[in-house]
Amino acid sequence: MKIIYLLFSFTVGGTERLVANICNQMETQNEEVHLYIINDLIDDNLLDTLNENIHVKLLRRKVGSKDKISPLFKVAKYIKKNKIEVVHCNSFNAPELLILSKIVNPNCKVVSTIHGMGQFENIGKNKILLKNWVCDKFIGISNAVAGDIVAAGIDEKKVVRVYNGIETKKYDCAKLKKYDENAIVIGCVARIIPELKGQDILLEAIKIVKKRHPKVMALLAGGIAENQQRNYEQLIKYVRDNSLEENVKFLGNVDNIPEFLNKIDICVVPSRSEGFGLALVEAMAMGVPCIASNIAGPAEIIKNEETGILFNNGDSVELANKIIKTIGKYQEYKEDAWKKRTRIVEKYSIETMCEQLITLYGKVKANKYANSKLAGFRG
Fold first, then answer.
1. Which residues contact 39 (CB under 8 A, 6 or more apart)?
2. Residue-level pLDDT at 177
């Protein structure tokens, strides 16, 4: 099967890392895999992780460019020339680039993965109708996201839930030396987007935890997202104003996530909104005790007080208390997290995800929706 994965950027973010892993896994299954990147936001290190047999096309359109027309023709030409059978979009606005492709190559099927909650809000009825026409199938990365897609007005027969997967072999490694052997190390993996990822909530919690555990340290891994420089500076100011310079470190983009997770004691996902929670799954696969916001995605992954701990969305005081509680019973939580990592590895492997995608692509090509085993998302 000839498959193309379409993205606007290819930087070190959760979605981009996921697509890279999907491409590599699909290529090992003898699928012909193409990766098409529209904009010039490209991380060469991430490109280097791709298998050599993957066909990579870099359009390198300038970010912020007003040129909305030429990509329509270039993408359509590429799809037709390479006789692509399935286009899989992993950027929310990517389906609009395929309007011409659907006209000149109607047999090419389009699948669109929605990676977060509320993405259909305020885009207008016409855009929703356009996406519904262009896309043959929509994937929600959790039950909550799939439900959100249907609530927006997308035909339920076109919606399926497929959980994100990780390369589980990378998360089965011996414990490395901690970042700081004398500190309790809290880790957070997310791009700097405080209004979504909640880094400010974590900093407020660390300020409280420090009163009980002066050597607590928070490591924030993740680059600054587009248009977030000012919010990043506000986080830095909060650290300075509250004398947290020795307790909080911003690491920027981290290429080796398993190595990072292996050096921390507790993983915190303080997001205000999260469609799934790939970093959460990665940490759980490492046997790291996890604390996360009680919101859509994480609440599907964590069973509170059994496979992790949930706290009320946005409540930094409760988060601080949960961290303090975990520190107090750390060995118990650590042993329990390690015992239960096997379930995570089995349920959220990249192999399982890609098996489901290949089945889905086949059903879409055959125009089988309602009778498909994958049709619908509940249950």
1. 8, 9, 59, 60, 61, 62, 63, 65
2. 60
